[in-house]
Write a structure and sequence with these properties.
This protein is α/β, with parallel strands linked by helices. It has 2 domains: 4-228 and 443-453, Glycogen Phosphorylase B (Rossmann fold, 3-Layer(aba) Sandwich); 237-439, Glycogen Phosphorylase B (Rossmann fold). The protein contains 17 helices and 16 strands. The protein has helices at residues 24-36, 72-91, 102-119, 139-145, 163-166, 172-179, 190-203, 231-235, 241-254, 272-285, 307-327, 344-352, 368-375, 408-420, 423-439, 442-454, 461-472; strands at residues 4-10, 39-48, 56-60, 63-71, 128-132, 152-155, 184-187, 207-209, 212-215, 218-224, 258-263, 293-298, 335-338, 356-359, 384-388, 401-403. The chain has a 10-stranded mixed beta sheet, with helices on both faces. Strand 3 (56-60) and strand 4 (63-71) form a beta hairpin. Helix 3 (102-119) crosses helix 4, helix 9 runs parallel beside helix 12 and helix 10 packs parallel to helix 11 (307-327). The chain is globular and about 65 Å long. The protein binds GDP-alpha-D-glucose.
């Protein structure tokens, strides 16, 4: 088996532990790497006075890791800047929050160069290299420039925006061209892949043949490869004490009321303000539900150094206060809004105690919370998933109650429908979704991507490759 080198912006270190508030990528990647005895390379999350390229090797959760520290300027311009203030909002269709600055773009290029320089001595000729997410799009180009001809793949965890939005980025063409130095690009859904193809068709002199784009001397396969859960591992929490205790604690404190749950990083893409507004409308338009339901929203803060995240936090504090001020009674708090993280086992118990799982992002590459909510349900008496049509997960979880997160009315109707849904319908919908979550789990996802990465280039690519070189010469 060929060795896998996975690269992502952050690498989970041992000290942060299994129960830290880990993003979807960290959870999924650890499972994929354990299978292939690979090496996981990335930023430690630590700051250093001067970048030296010194690598720290560790074992974390059974995975070999190699990490580097970054300078303050790198963190500002590359991570807080280009990644989180330019690409993240733009790729989540939030042009209003997208900040364009040359310093950010410069920091992004510099850190990608630093990653390539530091990583280069670790790569053996037969290694497969798998780069993750929007922080590191130009990395293959940097490695190719240093002579690496390994198979290199890229997986985009977030949406790919339509061409008209991408063009707001001053160097959009260079960015897309750099991506065509990969052998495989993985997308969470066909919608994001199609947006990428739309850009290539409109702006590059490239040849598109089914899943393959040939540009210059390389043919790149565009793969739809939706990320899954480590379903078996996640579901093993059903036997854990922490899960049982969390479930019991919630059931007791609910005193017979139905619980609706949301679990999201505190991020504007997750549609939390819109969700709170929809919940408010639910209580206003259906007064019979007052005192009968409550919403538990878990929202651990993230990216607190970025102003738009401070702003959303302030807005949510105000909104939750006003909803509780308007509706609460002496023994009923309609909205429990919690800014802290819980262990994965506790989360399992929290999901299981909820009659409705509310997952309503305005835009999301996939959304693993939707899958976790379904996986945690008791098949004999499952809760109902209410899911945004703009989450990548909606393409797979068609049996959810699908809602438009921009419409409070649609969301309020969806929640009411979920609360009233008869057992047989709940069971049928749950069965269909669980089937997909079990079959297309994280192991399926990594095998699918690795198979594509490990395969030889399609023979038909060779003549096209010669022609393309001749055309561009
Ligand atoms: C990106 C894409 C894509 C949340 N609170 C706690 C906690 N979490 C865990 C959840 C879930 C993960 O964080 C969040 O998953 P998402 O899928 O919503 O992810 P993003 O962070 O936005 O990540 C996304 C994902 O990459 C994977 O490709 O699905 O679309 O945006 O696993 O459970 N975990 C713990 N405590 C918490 O309080 N332990």
């Amino acid at each position: 088996m060929r060795r896998l080198i996975a690269i992502s912006n952050r690498v989970q270190t041992e000290t942060e532990g299994e129960n830290a508030n880990r993003g979807g990528l960290a959870v999924a990647l650890a499972a994929a790497l354990r299978e292939s005895s690979g090496l996981w390379f990335g930023w430690s999350g630590e700051q250093t006075d001067e970048f030296t390229g010194q690598i720290t090797f560790r074992k974390a959760n059974g995975v070999a890791t190699a990490t580097i520290d970054l300078e303050a300027q790198d963190i500002d311009e590359y991570y807080n800047g280009f990644a989180n203030r330019t690409l993240w909002p733009l790729f989540h269709y939030r042009l209003d929050l997208t900040e364009i600055a040359r310093d950010f773009a410069g920091g992004y290029a510099r850190v990608n160069q630093r990653f390539a320089e530091t990583l280069a001595p670790l790569i053996e000729p037969d290694d497969l290299v798998w780069v993750h997410d929007y922080h590191l799009m130009p990395l293959a180009q940097q490695l190719r420039a240093r002579g690496f001809e390994n198979r290199i793949g890229f997986f985009l965890h977030i949406p790919w925006p339509p061409p008209s939005l991408l063009m707001s980025l001053p160097d959009h063409r260079e960015l897309v061209e750099s991506l065509l130095d990969y052998d495989v690009i993985g997308f969470q859904s066909d919608e994001w892949r199609q947006s990428f193809i739309d850009y290539v068709t409109a702006h590059l002199d490239a040849e598109i043949d089914g899943e393959h784009v040939t540009f210059g001397a390389r043919s790149t396969r565009l793969l739809v490869c939706p990320i899954g859960l480590d379903t078996a591992d996640f579901c093993s929490a059903v036997h854990s004490l922490a899960a049982k205790q969390a479930e019991t604690r919630l059931t007791v404190s609910a005193v017979g009321r139905e619980m609706i749950v949301g679990v999201d990083r505190l991020d504007y893409s997750k549609g939390l303000q819109e969700r709170f507004a929809a919940y408010e409308l639910l209580l206003t338009s259906r007064p019979e539900l007052c005192e009968k339901v409550f919403l538990l929203q878990i929202a651990p803060p993230s990216r607190g150094d970025v102003p738009s995240y401070q702003q959303i936090r302030a807005e949510l504090n105000a909104l939750s206060g006003s909803i509780n001020g308007e509706f609460a009674s002496i023994d009923w708090v309609p909205l429990r809004y919690v800014n802290q993280g819980y262990s994965r086992d506790e989360l399992f118990g929290i999901y299981r105690a909820a009659k409705v799982g509310l997952v309503t992002p305005l835009r999301d590459g996939m959304n693993l919370v939707a899958k976790e909510y379904v996986a945690a349900q008791d098949p004999a008496d499952p809760g109902v998933l209410v899911l945004s049509c703009f989450a990548g997960a909606a393409a797979q979880l068609e049996s959810a109650v699908i809602v438009n997160p921009h419409s409070s009315e649609d969301m309020a109707d969806g929640i009411a429908r979920a609360l009233a849904m008869p057992l047989a319908e709940r069971q049928e919908r749950h069965r269909a979704m669980l089937d997909c979550i079990v079959k297309q789990d994280v192991h399926w996802w990594s095998r699918r991507f690795m198979d594509a990465l490990g395969e030889d280039p399609a023979p038909s690519a060779v003549p096209r490759l010669v022609d393309a070189t001749r055309n561009t010469a």
